[in-house]
Amino acid sequence: MKLIKQILRLAGAGTGLMILTFGFSDIAATTNVFVGASGTLTFSPKTLTINTGDQIIWTWQGSFHSTTSGTVSGGTTHPDGLWDSGVNNSPHSFTNSFPTAGNFPFYCSVHFGSGMTGAVAVVSAAVPPTVSITNPPNGFTFSDPASFTLAASASDSDGTVTGVQFFEGATSLGTVSSSPYSVPVNNLSAGDYGFSAVATDNGGLMATNSITVHVVTAAPVVLSAAQFLPPAHFRFNYTANSGLSYIVQRSTDLTGNSWTTLGTNQAGGSPVVFDDTNATASPAFYRVGRLPNP
To answer: Rounded to two decimals, what is the model's pTM?
Structure first.
């Protein structure tokens, strides 16, 4: 966890504020083990569990002891070379860090025959789940009234996802306990809306992903500024709402089956300039329609 220390100092009444900020790198947790605790031939605690990245400080309370990594079997020591403090007397301390998960036995190289052994279990720190809103895209624009499915994907690398709760602002839209994770959203009027999905895993850890969507009142589509540019260009403008999608079609006789789609686009502003680069038919008629919300 990044620790940030901020010192705020007011230099007299009515004067400016000075802020000093210092950054610190992640600090590992530390566990103490007493060597020859209270004069006994023991480690205290004898066994312990820590997280990856943590460290242990062995502190001598007795003399002529060591902490040496490895096992004891058949009355013989089997050091594995991960650490060895050497034989020391009180007062003394020895520190070792544990960057990887696993089980790490140790012993006193002098008094192992008296049962002076111990073990460290190093476990990976719990990892929170991940969650991502998959529909609609962040920043998407709808026309009012807007209805859509708010959907998310979620996973957990070291456990299971127990549920995804959806919010519109601070208002809960419901919790879904299994995939697919989705809830309906209905009849939004014009405005900007914030939505979020909060995933929870079986360890109680949580993750959040948020998006914003825009809902607009669609403006009427009006065609203007038509001009023919020989030999085969026909250009015109049409009004649109930025972010909404439109379809442009052409017909030679205005019958229902003769309309040919020339293109679709998401408007970046208004008006939109359209250029038919193959305007060879005469007569030709054009129409522009706003596509419905997805």
So the answer is: 0.66
